[in-house]
Amino acid sequence: MNIDQPTNKPNKSISLLICGIGGGGCNTIKNIINFNNQNININNLLAVNTDRQSFDIFKKQNFLNNIKQEIIENSNEVDKNILEKFNELKDNDYICPVLPLGISQYGAGADPEVGLQLIKDTEEQLLKVLDGHDIIVLLSGLGGGTGSAGHEIARMAKGLDKLVISLVTTPFSFEGNARINNANNSLKEYEKYSDMTVAISNDKILQIQSAKQVNVSFKNSFKSIDEIGSAFAVSLFDIIYNQGTINIDFADINRIIRNQKGKGVVGIGFGWGRDAANQALEKALNNPLIKEDIGIASANNLLIHISGDLTLLEINNIITSVTKKMHNKNAQIIYGIGDGKENYTMFNKYFSKALNTDKRIRIMLIATGQTNFETQKNNIDNYQEESHVYEGDQKSLADFDFF
Ligand SMILES: Nc1nc2c(ncn2[C@@H]2O[C@H](COP(=O)(O)OP(=O)(O)OP(=O)(O)O)[C@@H](O)[C@H]2O)c(=O)[nH]1
Ligand SMILES: [Mg+2]
């Protein structure tokens, strides 16, 4: 096993852009802003869509009203300081950069060909934004017309030699074959143009809810899926911008992610209290982004970032527990140790039971270069399982934690 200790170069000069494409992607951007992470500047975000009306969620007044509503419904989830953040803006100003695609007023009507043309029509503006950054993270829900055409943005970014990471969702089976076919075709294109593509199957979320016997509202189910995307994006920011005890820099991220033929899995887990390390590890390994254990086992590259107040024994335990799962004993392993000073605001709800303890640990894994990778397409094609629908009381989102 080749374990590299990364160098201690600061990453301040590296710029990361998170670009939400289509309705689902833009909702994830909104979720990221809600988290109010100190490392993320508004100019690190971009919402693109064909449907101009969808940008209304980013108008200051609407955004703040929505935040107030969220605070009432689930007070742990939103950093209340955000209410002050946009003081200088007028009510109808957008709180983050938005880019309408083409001249369309409306969505792409679930037709990816229409979405593709509208993205091509906006190439000049897109290239200008993309070129100002080093790492491009694309977020989209596949199945409709706009997000499903977002691979065209990946192609543009790749043409500029950027590091491109795509995080996409595939539709619920009940959304029907037309959407599933759109998504399957689109996923192949995302994989072609991205250094790494992580696909979240909405059906998997359904299976987890079913298995856990929780019955979460439709709106909150989408919200929890958006949360996976935002947690990934925000954690990536923290890793790149926070100076750790053992730092991971752009060269390390490049090494693990660049040119991985599109395949990769990501796991994030949190733990607190005396058993924090085990808890975080267990959650990172069982994260819905890691489909089966095979995601780690067959990987040839692994980046593992551990953050919090840990002992040497705990670090040793975490890293060896993960690397032991890997078949390739000469796999490339890069690890980083955060100083525990990351902004945990966004994750407060996961730590809500830990208010009396200082020990909070986050583990993030990125595994790439899988051989015999089981594609998301197979997941969709094979999803036949009868799911048992729990008919108990509807649970709040807080009862349905992924991390
Ligand atoms: N995570 C998440 N997924 C969503 C949300 N809304 C829709 N989706 C999923 O994303 C897929 C695409 O939907 P949208 O993003 O609304 O579609 P679009 O890309 O805007 O495409 P058009 O509206 O046809 O132009 C759907 O089939 C759903 O599976 C959301 O709010 N969050
Ligand atoms: Mg739309």
Which tags fit this structure?
single chain, about 40% helix, 11-stranded mixed β-sheet, Rossmann fold, about 400 residues, 14 helices, alpha/beta, binds magnesium ion, about 20% strand, binds guanosine-5'-triphosphate, globular
Plain-language structure description:
This protein has two domains: 233 residues, Tubulin/FtsZ, GTPase domain (Rossmann fold, 3-Layer(aba) Sandwich), CATH 3.40.50.1440; 114 residues, 2-Layer Sandwich (60s Ribosomal Protein L30, Chain: A). It starts with a strand and ends in a 21-residue tail after the last helix. 48% of the residues are buried. Strand 2, helix 1 and strand 3 form a beta-alpha-beta unit. With 403 residues, it is α/β, with parallel strands linked by helices. About 7% of the residues have low confidence. The protein has an eleven-stranded mixed β-sheet with strand order 1-10-9-11-8-7-6-5-2-3-4, with helices on both faces. The site of guanosine-5'-triphosphate has 25 residues, from helix 1 and helix 9.
